[in-house]
Amino acid sequence: MEELKQQSISLKAARVNAGLSQEEAAKRLHKTPAQISYLERRPGKVTLETAWEMSKLYNIPVWALAP
Predict the structure, then answer these.
(1) pLDDT at residue 16 above 90?
(2) What is the tens place of the pLDDT at every residue in 17-40?
(3) Which CA distances in Å does 12 have to 1, 2, 27, 50, 57?
(4) Which of 25, 32, 42, 46 could form a disulfide with 20 if both were Cys (CB 3.0 to 4.6 A apart)?
(5) If DSSP states are collapsed to H, E and C, what string results for the chain?
């Protein structure tokens, strides 16, 4: 039986696939564009709350966001 593999996506790719600029994502997430840029470069710094909000905004499961 083939094992089901979960694929992850970078925060930047998730945002771009959702059709959002850093500025648009920042506004909707109540962050600054600089904060979004920082989190995309350092995904390990994303809090669970922010990851949850990003997953809703980008319309992907939270587990799919790359750590």
Answers:
(1) yes
(2) 999 999 999 999 999 999 999 999
(3) 33, 30, 16, 14, 13
(4) 25
(5) CCCCCCCCECHHHHHHHCCCCHHHHHHHHCCCHHHHHHHHHCHHHCCHHHHHHHHHHHCCCHHHECC
